[in-house]
Amino acid sequence: MANDMTPNPFQPPAPPGSLRETGIDRDLIQGLLLKLGYVSSQFSTEVASQKLHLPIPLLAEMLEEMRRDTLVEVLGSSGPLGYRFTLSQKGRDRAVRALEVSGYLGPAPVSLEAYTHSVVSQANSRPVVAPQQVAQSLSNLTLTDEARMLAGLTVTGNRSLFVHGPAGNGKTALCLCLRNALTSSVWIPHCFAVENQVVRVHDPQIHESQPAPAGGPVDPRWIPIRPPLVVAGGELRLQDLDLTFSPTLRFYEAPIQVKANGGVLLIDDFGRQQVQPAQMLNRWIIPMEYHIDYLTFQTGQKICVPVRQLLLFATNLEPRDVTDPAFLRRMGYRLNLKSPTPRQYSTIFQNYAERLGVSVPAGLIDSLLSRYASEHRELRCSDSRDLIERVRDLCRFQAIPFELTPKHLDLAWTGFFGSDD
Known about the structure:
With 421 residues, the protein is α/β, with parallel strands linked by helices. It has helices spanning 19-22, 26-39, 45-52, 56-68, 89-101, 112-125, 131-137, 145-156, 171-178, 256-259, 277-290, 319-322, 325-330, 342-356, 364-374, 381-397, 406-417; strands at residues 43-44, 72-77, 83-87, 110-111, 161-164, 186-189, 191-194, 197-200, 222-225, 229-232, 244-245, 252-253, 264-267, 292-296, 302-306, 310-315, 333-336.
């Protein structure tokens, strides 16, 4: 799916032809150039352009101003349009002060206004997700017609989804698969700036870069990615939903709800976070109601950012124990994934075995279902995978062919569920 992205109707801006068109302060760009010179004995106009993702003519103009202000010294020519520079002592002193404000050095940021416009525009112009795209994304799951319908409505309506039910019945798997229904690439900036504070948005661990579509030149501060998937579980804390300042790097990291814009944000194991469910619920009221969020800098300054993604919650706890009416009223859809019927369990078992290339002897699944009944054990969708995988572990350990036999399955059962003896 990652290589089958369709073009995004949103068009990022062309490369800026002037400082005004960058949308950010002159001092911020000058600070980046000073920091580049501080960490390098010398640098060229071309290197600065590659590092800051800004056009050479724009940087050449700025560097000429810095030369007149005796912040840099020219060492010689580096090509038809560029020169080699080094910082003067005055420039080095100014660079130290710039590093004290922000340690960020990389692609130049865009403005918060430009970032907000891009998120909202892309959300409003995203191609409608066809039912067949949803069906294909869920094709490996055995679901009821109701579950497929609600999952499809969540994606096509771009609404939130609250999935609950017993553990091991595919809540997380369903949520993760919905990401595959989003086939339009997303444009994001490397970072955005508010005055002289930089907030990094692009995260290589989350964002998968895509080839730039054919067309005219694009501002290199923007990059196309696959719709992101961000998963947070029981480790999620309230502070993880706000700007994170690194004392070492001296710049801010965007929170997960910003990094997930244009994609999917899954809050898994909801209710098992390190804070009370009511506190977590209250934190999500504004983003769910108005599709915005308020983030705070260390100085106390607040900014408003867009929150536009598929927001999914999954829990195996009772909804009444982790939610309240105000939260559920703002939820787009609710889905109860119940334990599978014997017929569904048989289908899941057979499909997983086929996926691994191993046959299922006649009567094996019926015998397995009888054991569930005799031990008063509830069926779970994930048990099929877990038992078959443990049979494969056993065969690998004994260096024998991978086969699903009653003896192998009995050992897998004992090893997975334990023994009452």
